[in-house]
Amino acid sequence: MAGTSTSAETGLASPPALPTAAADLPPLKGFALVLLTIAAALSTFMEILDITIANVSIPTIAGALGVSSSQGTLIISSYSVAAAIAVPLTGWLARRVGEVRLFVISVLAFTLMSTLAAFSWNLESLVFCRLIQGLVSGPMVPLSQTLLVRSFPPEKRGAALGLWAMTVILAPICGPLLGGYISDNYHWSWIFLINIPIGLFGASTIWSLMRKRDSPRVKVPLDVVGLILMVVGIGSLQLMLEIGKDNDWFASGMIITLAVTAVVALSFFIPWVLTSKHPIVELHLFEDINFRYGVMLLSIGFMTYFGSVVVLPLWLQSVMGYTSSQAGMALAPSGIFSLILAPILGRNITKINLRAFSSFGFLVLGLVSLWNGFMTLDIDFWGIVNPRIVQGIGMACFYLPIQSLMMSNIAPDRMAAASGLSNFLRTLGAAMGTAISVTVWEDMSNTHHAYLANNVNRYSNASNDYLATLQATGMSADQAMGAVERLVSAQSVMLATNQFFLYSAFAFFAMAGMVWMTKPRKILAAPAGH
Fold first, then answer.
1. What are the tens digits of pLDDT across the range 109-134?
2. Which CATH architecture has domain 5-222+280-447+493-517?
3. For residue 525, what pLDDT band results from cuts at 50, 70 and 90?
4. CA–CA distance from 340 to each of 141, 344, 408 (Å)?
5. 478: which residues sit within 8 A by CB, 6+ positions away?
6. More confident site: 295 or 234
7. pTM of the full predicted structure?
8. Contacts 24+ apart (CB under 8 A), 19-25
9. Are 440 and 500 in contact (CB under 8 A)?
10. Using the 8-state DSSP alphabet, how is residue 217 labeled?
């Protein structure tokens, strides 16, 4: 396609040439270019931070709003699903509104919804604010990257995107730390209020520097039917996964209705987008073997990873007695090696064996999950932290190579559609992983609790001996039985947590093998056409 090129370093398409008015302007240089990079990176940081900052704060927020921790996970999944649905609309909206204008509107709307979320009075109002916040956040990450690519000369784009990627990696590290610290020392609303100065700075800076360099606005049709089918299908599926446990699954008419709605909507959605002239997502991209398996690996990988990101802090706070700050400190080290390795891998992405590095990354994640599968109730803080440190190696080694491998055969004129579809499914996978993992984890806990409690009876010598020992310390019979119940509950959750991570290990090991179903990556053309 004329005016379009592909970067060998990033595997991303360079954007088409700017309109004449913008092209006649001198390129940004010096402090203005630095300021643009900071503003775009901070806006991206803010959006990704809001995915992870709430993870360790769920028990605190849920307690303040008078709901269970499992219900509190709606705060995360509502945001993630809404963001996933919004991502495919980014290309269409950018052409209709203009990339700079759309980015600024998204950042300002995101900041407004953050403010409203901070003043939510119940779970329903908070979930609503997070839902809208997710919808308006969709364009922020892809457009921040696009604006940097447009503003830097071709020979410096790799460095710019390296800085951008480091910000993306840093946000999940800071999220648990900030969320935990704020929850323990301030009101939970501050996890949303801190977005206000960042959002105002990012929007005002980008607008002042880039408003005369906006992309041309073009009236292009929207696949309204495809959009409606996608929203109804995915929304019904996610809602079913979220509330299924509390409504006794398919014994509930509501859950059956949601399941049928999801199946029908998605069944019509697939043939519709395959035959539409202007599809909301390009499913024909799955004809390419690298894209097909790359998207599967990214989606399942993030689904499995985000499951552990949600389950681990819930276990630490509900059973191990960790505060939100302590849980955040235990989780944060997972980003250390990612932060170190990501720019190194990015600079050498065309030189490495992508399949070997991806497979190695999945193997590391599988071994870390296996490591976690043998945790006990007497594990210390460093026993939690050490696997998280090693986990960062796996995340860096699988994410960047899979991303490059996935896009390796995509033509430049289809790169935007491929990026939108892959981001959509990756974000959706993370949201579904959050909902499914909590449900499965709690069901396994209940199963283990029933089994262990069944063995605490008058005919069990071990139970009688333990109760007698407790009563010998001065406990009454009721107090001793209460202590046994607390022990049974803690052990049942511990066993469920071990079992969950063992299943996760199996999934990661399977993905390490699936990588080799892709084909060796083709060499991408160097930047040209500018």
1. 999 999 999 998 888 899 899 989 98
2. Up-down Bundle (1.20)
3. very low
4. 21, 7, 24
5. none
6. 295
7. 0.74
8. 19/215, 19/216, 21/212, 22/212, 22/213, 22/214, 22/215, 25/212, 25/213
9. yes
10. P
